[in-house]
Fold this protein.
Amino acid sequence: MNMATGPRYRVHFRRHRSGKTDYRHRLNQIISRTPRLVVRKSNRHIRAQLIVTGKEGDTTLAAATSLDLKNYGYSGYPGNAMAAYFTGLLLGYRAKKSGNAEAILDLGPYVSTKGGNVYAVLKGAVDAGLDMPHDKSVFPAEDRIRGKHIAQYRKVDLPALFDGVKAKIQAEFK
């Protein structure tokens, strides 16, 4: 007997079948009525958005990508922990400028990995002043965010680059 036949068989939504959306978790986030910090990674870039859900669908309140960092003098790889931190910092300042002070993290399809780039974005948003529930033990190490662990392999002084880019981002929003 085939299990996919009969009057009681229910086909799940397409995004559930493909593993892209956990609708039970999404419903809990929607019920909270708090904007979501959505972090998505590609092979080279990081995108962070502050999204609120309404009757008409999702609305983006603020957004930042690792490509925006070129405007602040960042010349490193756009997919590492330093770029993730700066993307979160930039998003946090843009969200505060648009009048949003709180959010919750939406991991989406990603598995929670302590010290991962998703948590580097969260640390940047928290450092910018967004009020978000978090545990500091999941943040990447400060040396990793500042690039000290790879500074010996690069010709660029990454800790100095970190300080310069952070100062430029903060100067724009202060």
Remarks:
- The mean pLDDT is 91.
- The longest strand covers residues 46-54.
- Residues 20-173 form a domain with the Nucleotidyltransferase; domain 5 fold (CATH 3.30.420.100).
